[in-house]
Amino acid sequence: MNSPRRVQHQQTDRGTIPVYATGVVEQPWDTYTKTDHQVWGQLFARQREVLPGRACQEFLDSQNALQMTAEAIPKFSDLNPILKATTGWELVGVEGLLPEFTFFEHLANRRFPVTWWIRAPEHIDYISEPDLFHDLFGHVPLLMNPIFADYMEAYGRGAMKAHGINEQALLNLTRLYWYTVEFGLIQTAAGLRIYGSGIVSSKGESIYCLESDAPNRIGFDLERIMSTQYRIDTFQQSYFVINDFEQLFEATRPDFAPIYDRLADRSSIPARETLESDRVLHRGTREGFSTDADT
Ligand SMILES: [Fe+2]
User: Fold this and answer.
1) How far is the CA of 276 from the centre of ligand 1 (A)?
2) CA triplet 25, 28, 32: central angle to 5 degrees?
3) Ligand 1 centre and the CA of 114: distance in Å?
4) Which stretches does DSSP call E strand in 182-288?
5) Cα–Cα dist 135/243, whole Å
6) 226-274 pLDDT, tens digit each
7) What is the CATH topology of the domain spanning 27-282?
8) CA of 289 to the centre of ligand 1 (A)
9) Cα of 51 to ligand 1 centre, how many Å?
10) How far is the CA of 56 from the centre of ligand 1 (A)?
11) What is the pLDDT of residues 175-203, one digit of tens each?
């Protein structure tokens, strides 16, 4: 096996273009530098301070069960036996973003791709593409939860199907992933909590998503989410709130083909909007929102 590369977006004269890696690589754990381990440790410690009382208990408990610590970057080979024994998932190392279909295929087979490299200290607060901290700290703990683990597999299967239908079906599913797996909130007896990986791996958004008056917080609605645009350059303007993980899994049970047909005739909803039909938990003040560049 060749030594793993670090594959990232590239700057060209037409702007930034994504570069995709395809292969599965061995995590080159011995090549991590002291700085790499320090970056992990700093981010880990910071998030573990912010997340109690903000992230859902399932996330925190699962992270403890995986025995991740601030001491050093975890080894995939130490995490895999625990994950495998709990829900049958396993981590595979990758060099960067995967092409969509390859990514979905991994999920459908209960493999979660984790970028092997970690951000540099100068990008500690923000990096535009997934790195090891986002993937491992953010995504992996909830794969220990049996219902969430099933949801992720069902998502992978659904997305493989959507890929064979058309661009719009795929966009509908990308939005679902964005507003659940990456940026989802969950209602619990103790109050509103975070489960989305994009949030739990960001200090700023962990606080903002729950405590700022600016964004909307709206009850989960599958078709509504599938029609909603999102922001990739700022904190989210709307968050969607599930009641529990069963709700998420149940929502992916029906055949999505008739849903894609219905949604094809509807126009997309801007990220900042609320609708008459929404179950609005908090109507955002939209303070500081820019109005361009929804995706
Ligand atoms: Fe992610």
Assistant:
1) 31
2) 145
3) 9
4) 185-188, 191-194, 216-219, 238-242, 280-282
5) 24
6) 999 998 888 999 999 999 999 999 998 888 999 999 999 899 999 999 9
7) Phenylalanine Hydroxylase (1.10.800)
8) 23
9) 17
10) 17
11) 999 999 999 999 999 999 999 999 999 99
